[in-house]
Amino acid sequence: MTHVALPLSDSAADQRRRWLTSAAVFVFAALTLVVPSGYSLGPAILLLAGCSLAVRRPRLALDTADWRLMLALVTYTAVVVAGALWHGQGMSTLDRPLRLWLALPALLWVMAYPPRLGGVWAGLALGAMGAGGFALWQRGQGVARADGYMHAIQFGNISLLLGVFCLAGAGWAWQQPHRRAWLWLLGLGAAGGLLASLLSGSRGGWVGLPLVLWVLYRAYGKGFSPKARLLALMMVAALALAAYSLPQTGVKHRVAQAVDDIALYVSGEKVTTSVGSRFEMWQGATHLALEKPLMGWGERDYSAGMADMVERGIVHPSIKQFDHAHNQFLDTLAKQGIPGLAALLLLFGLPLRLFSRHLKDPDLTVRSLAAAGALLCVAHIDFGLTQAGFNHNSGVMIYAFWLVIWWGILYRYRRAQRCAATAASPARSPRP
Q: What does the UniProt keyword field contain (predicted)?
């Protein structure tokens, strides 16, 4: 496997800036789930650092892919802001979407002064293991569903995301001098993230695990023999069976509960179960979207529209308490119309395509970064099927800032590859 070194400045000032980036990303990864609002600390440092680029502007040779990724962030926020102005909403409703714009200075900073990857992967492993330990402690204290310092669904989904990031880092770890130690650390991180997700009882995240495995297979599967692939598949199946069978995880109970909820909803006996309520919210959001498909209802009028659905007997009264549809795509369509949904699909789909281009890169480090970025997008598409994550500060911050971190680091490696290719190509003879 080839490996290209980063073309970085050796000046003391630039080394200090890289150290600051490394510290910010490490804090972001390690403290996201184990301290209150831990997901805000690292991004705040990156944002402040990025704003300093207005004074000192490093040379960044941005290409089409870089501009496209920034376009996805800008477009979604612009559509949401335009929709809010159209519906006469207050500025308070724009707090979360505007955080996507705040990630842009952080992106430029990471591009200019990328973190050291050892700190990134170590922070992720510690953060995922910390989430697993915290979840175990909460269950030991009698908490039915581990939730950390946030909603149980958000805690479970973000824990799972940190865990799969650790799996993506296996390619980078394989190239390190202390390969075995790094693989063990990342493996423990993956186990900790998965454990926290299981103990949170957040079923929506588990549905997307086949997609996670598909991304990892695309990144690393071809490099292993058929025997090794079969062994890996057997290990995954054994872990899934163990997670389902052990009563301490609560997986079997949550799966059985979901099956019962669906049966009760279909028969009409009970619609106020966890799954039944989601079905009612999805039905209501779909009706709202069909009534105002172009611009949607807006944040303020969504609840009024849903209350009207209740009065007309279309949905059950129990869902009036919810201010979103527990589905990111339907929620966006109902509130922001077709332009909002298109912008959301662009926000997930375009970065996924850009990262996926590098899943077959000969450099395992580049491949690990591409896998992490692709997994970020795939996971949020999965999470969005059963949860409106962007209605939570944690959901917006996690997606926006991990997106710019992974792309910012990948940018430097792509730039290094271009420089290496230029240096290796024979000089052209001048025309006579």
A: Ligase, Membrane, Transmembrane, Transmembrane helix
Query: What is the residue extent of each domain of the chain?
Result: 12-220+326-417
Residue identified by tokens 């009706």 is: 287
Tally of CB atoms within 10 A around 163: 28
> How close are the terminal C-alpha atoms of the chain, in Å?
41
CA dist., res. 199 & res. 207, Å (int):
15
Query: What's the mean pLDDT in 291-316?
Result: 89
Task: DSSP letter for 176, please.
Answer: S
Determine contact, residues 300/335, Cβ cutoff 8 Å. Answer: no
Q: Of 310, 390, 432, 408, whose CA–CA distance to 354 is shortest?
A: 408
Whole-number Cα distances in Å, 62 to 3, 107, 111, 424: 22, 12, 10, 22
Q: Which residues contact 274 (CB under 8 A, 6 or more apart)?
A: 257, 258, 261
288 band by pLDDT with thresholds 50, 70 and 90: very high
3-state helix, strand, coil in the chain (%, to 5): 75, 0, 25
The encoded tokens of residue 272 equal: 């106020």
Q: Average the pLDDT over 392-415 and give the result.
A: 94
Contact 179, 377 (CB under 8 A): no
Residue scoring higher pLDDT (8 or 313): 313
Distance of CA 86 to CAs 4, 147, 337, 414, Å?
A: 49, 36, 12, 41
Q: What is the pLDDT of residue 432?
A: 39
Return the exposure string of 39-57: e unless at least 16 CB atoms fall within 10 Å of the residue's CB, then b: bbebbbbbbebbeebeeee
List, for residues 7-40, the tens digit of each pLDDT value.
565 688 889 999 999 999 999 999 999 999 999 9
Specify burial of residue 26 (Cβ count, 10 A radius: 0-12, 13-18, 19+): buried
CA distance 340 to 241: 40
260 three-class SS: helix
- What is the tens place of the pLDDT at every residue in 354-401? 999 999 999 999 999 999 999 999 999 999 998 989 999 999 999 999
Q: How far is CA 78 from the centre of its chain?
A: 21
The DSSP-derived string for 26-69 is HHHHHHTTTSTTGGGHHHHHHHHHHHGGGTS-------HHHHHH
Residue 243 to residue 329: CA distance in whole angstroms: 30
